[in-house]
Amino acid sequence: MRLLLVEDDEILGDGLVAGLTMEGYAVDWLTNGKLADEALKMNSYELVVLDLNLPDMDGLTILRELRARKDETPVLVLTARDTVPDRVEGLDSGADDFVIKPFELDEVCARLRALARRNEGRSTPNIEHKGIVLDPASHQVTFNDETVELSQKEFDILSFLMGNIGRVVSRARLEESLYSWSSDIESNTVEVHIHHLRKKLDPAIIRTIRGVGYIIDSESDVAPDLDDEE
Fold this sequence. Notes:
Elements: E1 2-6, H1 10-22, E2 26-30, H2 33-42, E3 47-51, H3 59-68, E4 75-79, H4 84-93, E5 97-100, H5 105-119, E6 127-129, E7 132-135, E8 140-143, E9 146-148, H6 152-162, H7 171-178, H8 189-200, E10 207-209, E11 213-215
Parallel strand pairs: 1-2, 1-3, 3-4, 4-5
Antiparallel strand pairs: 6-7, 7-8, 8-9, 10-11
């Protein structure tokens, strides 16, 4: 899941990048408000973690600009402003949730999982579909009640596809979601991970729509024959 972190405190930003990366997020980190605003115009993110006190453009202005563009990306605000009027202003500007500084990384991650869950229209922590149970908090997957060992990127791809059940996801969209600016990926990286997921789960669970992308069919869909894994 690709995440934009906007935080001008170098020490805090370094710690958040390290911690969120360990949690499986692909993190793009910016320390400047105007650059963050441009990044949000030019890129797609699943989540935004936003400080309010920023150089050049403050966080509330970024929020208002984001919502004015009808961009519904969930935003978690990090702030030392802990008064009720500050929180009211932030929520009215478009924030989805707040974490007051200082904070624990575990709380940030839990709130991000809750925002992602809400954005996907889920009420339960786990994602369950056709015998697969995916737990975003523990990063564990079971298939027909058997634990399946997945690499981090395999887990990330499965999580993204299961969050979009019934919708085709292009390879480019997967790459955009799973890799940050600094990542160096091979042209067939996604295909390799998809191949491994099919071997570890069910060959028919992820379908290739040739020339378009990948899909996990909904329960009501009648899947045609599995395409080649190209």
